[in-house]
Design the sequence.
């Protein structure tokens, strides 16, 4: 996504800035430059993904805490160009320059060799001693072989440099799609995966999602500190990654919420996997690294939903989110599917 700022006129920019500041005050969001950039883009044009993400948080009364604000900034605002990318560009320019020099040298050598061969041919027609001509040709071929060997070595070295650059670009792209705390896919990678999965689901293949949240996580953080809380999030991410299938995408959705997208999985399959995740986390032992103290076990609530033909992906996520909150509201430490939402709605 292009997160660069165009130069709007004064009145328009002032209007957008005012709306951004008012909304930040309503949500109790600190007016830092990064947070302001998020909300300025939210009220501006052409940032649908950011608007959808914030609207979903507002609709479900999610707090805009420091971690959520940071996730929004990193995912939707922070420029993707970094010093590493600039360095890579410079190295590529140098490599292309070297390649041009190699080719120019090879062409010049070609011309030189052709000229020598032509001269030898002329001498042969003039009756020059054949032995002298053979010796002259052998010398020129030896020089050509030496030049070719040097060129080949130079090309091999530049090819190795190109491989290094390619690997560096791959790692940079992977970092740009990865949540730094959990190592899972971030919102950018999640959105891309969902768009591709939706295209397959449009042809009739099932597509399901599960969303999990740590029960009483705020209390856990308050009692043991955010460092231990981060350790728990990493543990959750590890279990989620291990329990989903190879073709699935586990990702960090925001705060302590994790999500997994399961292509070619119906509601029952997704619920079964969700139950394995819940059970595995309930059996985990958490130890404070600094003291070795064994901490209370954790539990998670999980919501599960399946894509319905023709709906927007935001509707699928919203339904999964409601199932998650029904799981929390009905006792926590359980898996709730969208079918239970239907039953609750009917009973109501």
Sequence:
């Amino acid at each position: 996504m292009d997160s660069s700022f165009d130069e709007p006129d004064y009145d328009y920019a002032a209007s957008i800035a005012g709306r951004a500041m008012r909304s930040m005050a309503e949500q109790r969001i600190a007016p830092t430059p990064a947070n302001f950039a998020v909300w300025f883009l939210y009220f501006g044009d052409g940032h649908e993904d950011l608007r959808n993400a914030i609207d979903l948080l507002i609709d479900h009364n999610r707090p805009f805490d420091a971690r959520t604000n940071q996730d929004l900034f990193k995912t939707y605002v922070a420029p993707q160009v970094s010093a590493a990318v600039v360095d890579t560009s410079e190295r590529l320019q140098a490599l292309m320059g070297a390649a041009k020099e190699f080719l120019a040298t090879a062409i010049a050598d070609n011309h030189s060799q052709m000229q020598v061969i032509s001269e030898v041919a002329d001498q042969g027609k003039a009756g020059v001693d054949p032995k002298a001509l053979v010796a002259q040709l052998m010398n020129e071929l030896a020089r050509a072989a030496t030049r070719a060997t040097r060129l080949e070595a130079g090309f091999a070295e530049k090819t190795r440099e190109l491989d290094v650059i390619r690997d560096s670009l791959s790692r940079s792209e992977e970092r740009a799609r990865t949540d730094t705390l959990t190592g899972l896919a971030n919102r950018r990678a999640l959105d891309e995966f969902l768009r591709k999965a939706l295209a397959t689901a449009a042809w009739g293949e099932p597509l399901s999602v599960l969303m999990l949240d740590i029960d009483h996580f705020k209390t856990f953080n308050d009692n043991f500190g955010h460092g231990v809380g981060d350790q728990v999030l990493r543990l959750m991410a590890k279990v989620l990654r291990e329990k989903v299938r190879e073709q699935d995408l586990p990702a960090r959705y925001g705060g302590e919420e994790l999500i997994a997208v399961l292509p070619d999985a119906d509601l029952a399959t997704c619920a079964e996997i969700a139950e394995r995740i819940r059970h595995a986390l309930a059996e985990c032992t958490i130890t404070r690294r600094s003291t070795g103290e064994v901490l209370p076990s954790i539990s998670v609530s999980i919501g599960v939903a399946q894509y319905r033909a023709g709906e927007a992906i935001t509707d699928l996520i919203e339904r999964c989110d409601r199932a998650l909150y029904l799981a929390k509201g009905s006792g926590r430490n359980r898996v709730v599917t969208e079918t239970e939402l239907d039953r609750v709605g009917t009973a109501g």
